[in-house]
Amino acid sequence: MSLAGYFKFEEYKTNMRTEVLAGLTTFMTMAYIIFVNPAILSDAIGKEAIPSLVTATALAAGIATIIMAFYANKPFALAPGMGLNAYFAYGVVIGMGYPWQVALAAVFVEGIIFIILTLTKFRTAVINAIPVSQKYAIGAGIGLFLTLIGLKAAGIVVYNPATLVALGTENFTKAEFWIAILGLLIAAGMMVRKIPGALLVAILVATAVAVVIGVAPAPESLVAPPTLDKTFLQLDFAGLLSIGAIGVVFAFFMVDFFDTLGTVSGLSAKAGFMRKDGSIPDSEKILMTDAFGTSFGALLGTSTVTTYIESAAGIEEGGRTGMTALVVGLLFILVGLFVSPIAAIIPSAATAPALILVGFLMLTVIRDIDFSDLTEALPAFAVLVTIPFTYSIADGIGVGFISYVALKILSGRFREIHPLMLALAIVFAIYFLYLGGLIKF
């Protein structure tokens, strides 16, 4: 059978040229992750692991996206998710003090839970239990979290003992600051003009400038053989045997699960796949691919793999089948596996603009929160501010769930609380009391 026949070009009213162009477009819009993901994770694992992290990122993205192509026949691409990689590095490893090997084990377990839930009807129960306002707030809160990390990396925001944070005026004389501003202007300008690959181009141009002016060293070579010597099968499952680590697994799962559902729903609607009743054809295959990608990526040494909203760029170009995803997956493998020398010299100032602008894109979902209902809006607000201000996605989710249940009870609307949501709020309350030393096990 030909590729056109396998991917059902005739049924989807598409052709090879359109699908290949769509795949190239999607790859250009999300290829920045090849450089940004290793930059973030290496802050927790070590800069010497960047070559392995580049390989893990590209291989996880490539294999998962190719599986999406052949198994689900959808034009959706996958890669290690933004926000979850930041939570991995700055929340779990640096913030909570867990070894990065334990964090990888948490990601692997989260993926397995995702697989089990996809195979059972319990998945539907979890989806129905979490209020829509909380789902949107988690995504937006992670966006602010990424933006804060990006602003700090750019030197735009700095620590101040009197006000906690302040404008980094002392960095105005530093070349790194202006490199970040240059990257931010390039990326924002390209986004405004709807030019694909804005973040990738900004990273590469900012890095080139950094090399020219001596802020970053020139790469020893442009390409190098792939390696996984620092990260492959480095999972520490024994370290998960604690109350705190269970909370980490839960946070990874919650964000991945609902981020995937939201992304898949949005992409399916854009591509015209969604049925009138809101159901999505082959949704179980899409979710299963996402779940497999997460556990597979953890084995390689990267944080949670998820479906990318940047796939919308390829869909906009006419991509409607798995052929689009196949092109993206092959490009990740053929290009991404060999660029570790470039990734190793990219300064944080060059990747900071990507963090800031991805944060903006994630923040836009707050428009879908019903602010006229304070029992929905106030808990959503709690999530939105707690995630960045505590530097913890898990804490934000917990505060949101507890405040949602509390306000529904106080307003006399107890019946609106799903039993599973009530149980999750109680679990989080116990978890916080445990962390505060008020209860012991």
List the defining traits of the structure above.
single chain, mainly alpha, two-stranded antiparallel sheet
What would your notes on this structure say?
- This protein is mainly α.
- It has one domain (3-131, 152-244, 263-367).
- Helix content is 67%, strand content 3%.
- It is built from 20 helices and four strands.
- The strands form two sheets. The protein has a two-stranded antiparallel ribbon with strand order 1-4. The chain has a two-stranded antiparallel sheet with strand order 2-3.
- A hairpin with a 3-residue loop joins strand 2 and strand 3.
- Helix 10 (175-192) packs parallel to helix 17 (348-363).
- The chain starts with a helix and ends in a 6-residue tail after the last helix.
- The mean pLDDT is 85.
Instruction: Kindly state the percentage of residues in helix.
Output: 55-70%
Describe the biggest sheet?
Answer: 2 strands, antiparallel
Please provide the ordered H/E string of secondary-structure elements: HHHHHEHHHHEEHHHHEHHHHHHH
Please compute the radius of gyration using only Cα atoms: 21 Å
The SS-based structural class is mainly alpha
Principal-axes geometry comes out as globular
In short:
This protein is mostly helical. The protein has one domain.
Give the arrangement of secondary structure elements.
Elements: H1 3-6, H2 9-12, H3 16-30, H4 33-45, H5 50-72, E1 78-80, H6 84-95, H7 100-119, H8 122-129, H9 132-154, E2 157-160, E3 164-167, H10 175-192, H11 198-212, H12 243-271, H13 283-300, E4 305-307, H14 311-316, H15 322-336, H16 340-345, H17 348-363, H18 374-390, H19 393-410, H20 419-435
Antiparallel strand pairs: 1-4, 2-3
Helix pairs in contact: 3-15, 4-5, 4-6, 5-13, 5-15, 7-12, 7-13, 9-17, 9-18, 9-19, 10-11, 10-17, 11-17, 18-19, 19-20
